[in-house]
């Protein structure tokens, strides 16, 4: 289980909920999770499946500060801003106001 001080956990939750407008929560949550994985990617790559699962259940975040959370959320926000609307992320989904582009560049209905 990820361990944070309660105020840091609330900081993450408030940030996620502030993105809740029009699927923002689930979209942004994906990038927050990706930022966690990238943070420890060098270690995770060298682990087998069981070690990865054990590591992810006990991430070394107990000593994290607000600055660490800000950096993680900033990275997630940058990725969300850059890649959030890309066609590769939308395969098989249709969003209101946007179309999904197939591999040939045509619009999917």
Tags for this model:
disordered C terminus, Cyclin A, domain 1
Task: Provide a descriptive summary of the structure in words.
The chain has 109 residues and is mainly alpha-helical. The protein has five helices and two strands; from the N terminus they run H-H-H-H-H-E-E. It has a single domain, classed as Ypt/Rab-GAP domain of gyp1p, domain 3 (Cyclin A, domain 1, Orthogonal Bundle), CATH 1.10.472. Helices cover 56% and strands 4% of the residues. The chain has a two-stranded antiparallel ribbon. A hairpin with a 5-residue loop joins strand 1 (100-101) and strand 2.
- The overall strand count is 2
How many domains in all? 1
What characterizes the major β-sheet? 2 strands, antiparallel
Order of strands in the sheet with the most strands?
Answer: 1-2
- Strand fraction equals under 5%
Rg measurement, Å:
17 Å
Brief summary:
The chain is mainly alpha-helical and 109 residues long. Strands 1-2 form a two-stranded antiparallel ribbon.
């Amino acid at each position: 289980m990820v361990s944070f001080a309660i105020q840091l956990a609330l900081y993450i939750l408030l940030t996620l909920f502030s993105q809740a407008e029009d699927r923002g929560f689930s979209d942004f949550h994906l990038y927050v999770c990706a930022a966690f994985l990238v943070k420890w990617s060098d270690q995770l790559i060298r682990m087998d499946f069981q070690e990865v699962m054990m590591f992810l259940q006990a991430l070394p975040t107990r000593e994290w500060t607000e600055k660490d959370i800000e950096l993680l959320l900033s990275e997630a926000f940058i990725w969300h801003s850059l890649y959030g609307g890309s066609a590769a992320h939308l395969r098989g989904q249709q969003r209101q106001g946007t179309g999904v582009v197939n591999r040939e560049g045509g619009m999917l209905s």
